[in-house]
């Protein structure tokens, strides 16, 4: 299998090259790129209409997840570890999966929980091999684990969430207040 990296972007720079970006010195090439602009990057990908294109998102950005729909509508597959799209409102998730089917591409994602366990792939592998999952029990969120371990009724729930934020996990406690 030959993989051709045709575009890279971070929050500062972006680079698109149909000739390919050499994996061995991608950092230097990206440093020489132009100022990053997410919509411009997406437009470049779409306008080039490269066969078998795959957009890989390794961010946790809501803005990046918001462009998945545009890409899928142009038959560009999306592979992400970004939790935002797959754990957003269920209708959004359904729409992305539906677009992937309609435009003959894929919307694939994996996220990790429980100190880096790739749960989705593991469950899919178990099911694909013929196993039946009857029950799962776990606290798979480090934040929720912190809150459950520190909430005993003597403090307000919001105070425990605030303590979690103060101890350095603000992004993971956003929806708990």
Structure description:
- The structure is a single chain.
- The chain is an alpha/beta fold and 177 residues long.
- It folds into 2 domains: 122 residues, Rossmann fold (3-Layer(aba) Sandwich), CATH 3.40.50.720; 35 residues, no CATH class.
- 41% of the residues lie in helices and 11% in strands.
- It is built from 9 helices and 6 strands.
- The strands form 2 sheets. The protein has a 3-stranded antiparallel sheet with strand order 1-2-3. Strands 4-5-6 form a 3-stranded parallel sheet.
- Helix 8 packs across helix 9.
- It is globular and about 60 Å long.
- The C terminus is likely disordered.
Summary keywords:
single chain, 177 residues, alpha/beta, Rossmann fold, 2 domains, three-stranded antiparallel β-sheet, three-stranded parallel β-sheet, 9 helices, 6 strands, 41% helix, 11% strand, disordered C terminus
Question: What's a quick, concise take on this entry?
Answer:
The protein has 177 residues and is of the alpha/beta class. The protein has nine helices and six strands. Mean pLDDT is 85; it is low at 170-177.
Question: How many angstroms separate the termini?
Answer: 47 Å
User: What is the architecture of the largest domain at the second tier of CATH?
Assistant: 3-Layer(aba) Sandwich
Total domain count = 2
Q: Please write the CATH class name of the largest domain.
A: Alpha Beta
């Amino acid at each position: 299998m030959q993989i051709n990296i045709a575009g890279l972007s971070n929050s500062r720079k972006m680079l698109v090259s149909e000739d390919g970006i050499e994996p061995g010195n991608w950092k230097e090439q990206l440093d020489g790129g132009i100022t990053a602009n997410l919509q411009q990057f997406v437009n470049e990908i779409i306008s080039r209409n490269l066969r078998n294109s795959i957009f890989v998102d390794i961010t946790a950005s809501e803005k990046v997840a918001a462009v998945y729909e545009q890409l899928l509508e142009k038959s560009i597959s999306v592979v992400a570890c970004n939790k935002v799209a797959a754990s957003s409102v269920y209708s959004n998730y359904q729409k992305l999966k539906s677009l992937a089917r309609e435009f003959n591409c894929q919307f694939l994602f994996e996220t990790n929980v429980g100190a880096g366990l790739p749960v989705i792939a593991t469950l899919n592998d178990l099911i694909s091999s013929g196993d039946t999952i009857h029950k799962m029990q776990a606290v798979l969120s480090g934040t929720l684990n912190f809150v459950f371990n520190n909430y005993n009724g003597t403090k307000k729930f919001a105070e425990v969430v605030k303590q979690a934020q103060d101890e350095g996990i603000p992004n993971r406690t956003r929806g708990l207040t």
